[in-house]
């Protein structure tokens, strides 16, 4: 009930206050942090320019009190005596200890750049109090923030601040809150509605930047700024910093739980016709050809984005096997399919069994009665009526009543592609654009032959001059050499067999050129019960590394790699995945992935892999980790597309903890149809 | 063999259609179901979202029981129960369903009084929530709409987090000929007036 009330309040209040982003591209005044949490789940993107430094950051309110941020900074003149540019990654954590009360300020603790190369390494304890339109902030800073008039240090082990460990990826916990601390303070004053004036005292002296030749100039410890917030979540700011530099900030915030069009913009599902109207349809009259009914059903389902593969009839029950091509909420696909069935099939059919199929692999059968459909169509709590009357069952493979056009089926597509490579030490954004051709053939249910060819037209990934310095087998770090393959590149050429070995069990065998860098055989077994939070999987791959020319040849490196995986839908919005096994370089270890999942399909998470490769052997970054973002395209458009944009952001890709990237992995295939996912989005059944 | 080839072509054509389906809403071509109704020429309503000023012609698609379904050129539409809004689809409005039977009964009898009303909304997180309102129905006196003599009724509703005002113009038989009704916080009120009688 609490969640519902909160959702409703959110619904009523509309836009809440923006997350004001400072010049570190994370929430704050200008250079200084402030206390106070953003609304839970707020995702903010910031871009800031301060003198010769550009900072871009993504910050995310992980829990009501904890916020994380990942920053990428470009500092002109930091390297090679002022001639070279430094590209630097850093990560922040901000913990709100006390929420603001009528008399007490909000109090927070934070770490800036706690695991990076240490340029921005600092810690703070800060308090902020709102008094009408004025917000007063005061705090203590350590590390970089203790540049000017330090007060002294905490006693005992906190007295000395050790030198930073320069390897990115390792926590510098030994430095935190050590050494001298200096005070900072600031004010923000909201003038006309959406505009805020900012003033702060910053003890930061930009010692490192100035010592290395970057053109940061510090004439005064005072920064002044102006920030304006727009309706659409965008904030723009300008500042005059340290008596010398002009600063600019751009911020954008959004709450994944609140898309722009909450109700969706997709069309009205077919309204249910009265039963006598359905009975009188031409295809239901005596003597009509059974083909006429099937063709009508096929055409009307297709208009709803549902592809019909088979139709069976057993007395009062009718069964369809369908592919859901566009609806990210499975109940919505089920509801629309059932309505079309109710409007096409004669009234004697009272029960609709809808089996969802992917690549010919039957996953789940959703059964809805005609009576419940009618009762729920316009009832106030129609979704509840329908949920109570809907049963789910594990689907069994069958080819009964298969449409002649269903198999064999083929698909060819030619489209442009854009591939990006982020965070290269010499150039933060490298990319490749060109033409991609994909072809697939499905000769029978469960068998997929697929090819993926690319022809790069302009490529800056393959032109990178850095070569791998990895001491491990180069299982991933030769990516540049693959990207440099001239002409046509064969990314994938596979035969995949998907099957149901038993109840709640799913199987896959894939052979061929599995991905850009590896060919071989991959086999997977997944146990994914219809109900319950847990699923278990096992995958084994025997692969050989492919030639750099991206054609049919191989190099000399073989790997036997595979994992046992546990997938668990945690209480609340969290989902965890643990993979334990042998990685491509022969290293043994595990990967933990934690995702925060919104019922509307947005998923945000992080993963980390630890293996028996030591941090030194691994090289830069110490171990493999990254962030994952998945956003269904209909979140933006609210028009159904069935497509999900998935972005994995790794600070650096090395050879330790590297996994094979085989297509058609089973869990993502079955996920939306199993284990309570249908329940989570059931409210959409009448949309 | 020929059969296989034709079936592949059929499949490719389907795939192409599916790929284009999401774009259909953006183009100016009306949704196929709307186009078919437009050709048949049935009853029509003129709907407009009051806040954004967006005008939507609606065509009568189906009637089952006491509920009429109306569809717009973009494929979105709404349901009316005795002329009172029973749900909106496709315009970014959250109203899944509504129970305004008490208000409908008072209006049909041309009476004033207090009536409970419930709305079910879809949140941005795909949850359904029910909100309850208490509505005060008052008679605002006679109004002439073009040539039709009507009485204007106000339905002032108050809930825990929102309040809204619905307007109904009733003809001599007690039928709602024109109205302005609330669809939820996202899109606000929608006005409905007859464009073409059935």
UniProtKB/TrEMBL annotation, chain A:
Key words, A-Z? Signal
**Source organism superkingdom:** Bacteria
Q: Does the keyword Signal apply?
A: yes
For this UniProt entry, which residues form the secretion signal? 1-18
Is Signal found in the keyword set?
Answer: yes
| Record-given protein name | YjbH domain-containing protein
* The organism of origin for this protein: Oceanicola granulosus (strain ATCC BAA-861 / DSM 15982 / KCTC 12143 / HTCC2516)
UniProtKB/TrEMBL annotation, chain B:
What InterPro entries has UniProt attached to this entry? GfcB, YmcC_sf
Q: Which UniProt keywords apply?
A: Signal
Query: Which positions are tagged coiled coil?
Result: none
Q: Where is the signal peptide?
A: 1-31
Pfam family example for this protein? Answer: YjbF
Statement: the UniProt record of this protein carries the keyword Nucleotidyltransferase: no
- At the top level, the lineage of the source is Bacteria
Kindly indicate whether the keyword Signal belongs to this entry: yes
Q: Write the protein's name.
A: Lipoprotein
């Amino acid at each position: 009930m609490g969640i519902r009330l909160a959702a409703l309040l959110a619904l009523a209040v509309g836009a809440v206050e923006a997350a004001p982003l400072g010049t570190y591209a994370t929430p704050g005044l200008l250079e200084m942090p402030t206390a106070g949490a953003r609304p839970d789940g707020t995702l903010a993107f910031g871009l800031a320019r301060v003198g010769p430094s550009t900072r871009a950051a993504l910050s995310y309110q992980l829990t009501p009190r904890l916020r994380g941020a990942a920053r990428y900074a470009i500092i002109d003149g930091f390297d090679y005596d002022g001639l070279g540019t430094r590209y630097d990654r850093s990560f922040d954590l901000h913990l709100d200890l006390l929420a603001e009360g009528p008399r007490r300020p909000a109090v927070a603790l934070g770490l800036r750049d706690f695991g990076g190369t240490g340029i921005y390494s600092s810690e703070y304890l800060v308090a902020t109090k709102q008094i009408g339109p004025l917000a007063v902030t005061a705090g203590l800073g350590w590390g970089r923030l203790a540049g000017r008039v330090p007060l002294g240090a905490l006693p005992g082990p906190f007295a000395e601040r050790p030198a930073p460990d320069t390897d990115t990826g390792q926590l510098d916990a030994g430095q935190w809150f050590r050494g001298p601390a200096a005070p900072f303070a600031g004010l923000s004053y909201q003038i006309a509605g959406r505009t805020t004036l900012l003033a702060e005292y910053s003890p930061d002296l930009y010692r490192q930047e100035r010592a290395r030749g970057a053109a940061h100039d510090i004439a005064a410890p005072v920064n002044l700024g102006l920030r304006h917030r727009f309706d659409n979540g965008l904030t723009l700011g300008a500042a005059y910093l340290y008596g010398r530099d002009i600063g600019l900030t751009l911020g954008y915030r959004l709450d994944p739980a609140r898309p722009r069009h909450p109700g969706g913009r997709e069309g009205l599902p077919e309204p249910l016709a009265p039963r006598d109207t359905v009975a009188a349809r031409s295809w239901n009259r005596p003597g009509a050809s059974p083909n006429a009914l099937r063709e009508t059903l096929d055409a009307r389902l297709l208009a709803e984005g549902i592809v019909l593969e088979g139709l069976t009839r057993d007395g009062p029950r009718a069964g369809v096997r369908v592919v859901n091509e566009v609806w990210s909420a499975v109940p919505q696909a089920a509801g629309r399919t059932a309505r079309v069935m109710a409007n096409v099939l004669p009234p004697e059919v009272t029960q609709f069994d809808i089996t969802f199929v992917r690549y010919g692999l039957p996953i789940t059968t959703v059964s809805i009665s005609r009576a419940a459909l009618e009762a729920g169509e316009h009832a106030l709590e129609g979704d509840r009526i329908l949920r109570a009357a809907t049963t789910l069952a594990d689907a069994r493979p069958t080819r009964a009543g298969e449409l002649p056009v269903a198999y064999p089926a083929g698909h060819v597509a030619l489209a442009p592609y854009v591939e990006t490579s982020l965070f290269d030490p010499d150039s933060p954004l490298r990319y490749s654009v060109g033409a991609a051709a994909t072809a697939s053939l499905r000769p029978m249910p469960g068998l997929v032959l697929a090819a993926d060819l690319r022809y790069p037209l302009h490529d800056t990934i393959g032109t990178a001059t850095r070569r791998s310095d990895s001491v491990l087998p180069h299982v991933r770090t030769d990516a540049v050499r693959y990207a440099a393959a001239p002409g046509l590149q064969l990314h994938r050429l596979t035969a995949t067999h998907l099957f149901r070995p038993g109840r709640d069990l799913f199987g896959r065998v894939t052979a061929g050129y599995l991905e850009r860098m590896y060919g071989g055989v991959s086999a997977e077994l997944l146990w994914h019960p219809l109900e319950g939070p847990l699923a278990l999987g096992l995958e084994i791959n025997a692969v050989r590394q492919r030639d750099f020319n991206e054609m049919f040849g191989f190099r000399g490196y073989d790997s036997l790699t595979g994992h046992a995986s546990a997938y668990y839908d945690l209480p609340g919005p969290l989902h965890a995945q643990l993979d334990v096994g042998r990685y491509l370089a022969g290293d043994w270890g595990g990967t933990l992935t934690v995702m925060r999942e919104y019922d509307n399909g947005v998923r945000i998470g992080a993963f980390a892999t630890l293996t028996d490769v030591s941090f030194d052997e691994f090289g830069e970054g110490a171990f493999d980790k990254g962030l994952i973002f998945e956003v269904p395209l209909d979140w933006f458009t609210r028009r159904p597309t069935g497509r999900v944009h998935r972005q994995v952001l790794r600070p650096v890709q090395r050879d330790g903890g590297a996994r094979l990237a085989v297509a058609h992995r089973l869990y993502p295939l079955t996920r939306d149809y199993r284990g309570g996912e249908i329940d989570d989005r059931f409210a959409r059944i009448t949309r | 063999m020929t059969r296989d080839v034709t079936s592949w072509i059929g499949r490719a054509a389907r795939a192409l259609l599916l790929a284009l389906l999401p774009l259909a809403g953006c183009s100016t071509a009306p949704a196929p179901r709307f186009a078919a109704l437009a050709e048949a020429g049935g009853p029509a309503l003129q709907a407009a979202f009051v806040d954004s000023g967006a005008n939507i012609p609606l065509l009568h698609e189906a009637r089952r029981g006491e509920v009429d379904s109306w569809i717009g050129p973009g494929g979105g539409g709404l349901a009316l129960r005795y002329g009172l809004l029973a749900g909106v689809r496709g315009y970014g409005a959250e109203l899944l369903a509504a129970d305004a039977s008490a208000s409908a009964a008072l209006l049909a009898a041309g009476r004033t009084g207090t009536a409970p009303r419930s709305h079910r909304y879809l949140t941005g997180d795909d949850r359904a929530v029910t909100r309850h309102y208490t509505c005060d129905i008052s008679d605002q006196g006679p109004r002439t709409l073009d040539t039709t003599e009507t009485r204007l009724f106000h339905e002032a509703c108050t809930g825990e987090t929102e309040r809204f005002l619905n307007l109904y113009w009733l003809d001599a038989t007690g039928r709602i000929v024109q109205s302005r009704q609330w669809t939820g916080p996202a899109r606000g009120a929608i006005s409905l007036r007859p464009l073409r009688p059935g």
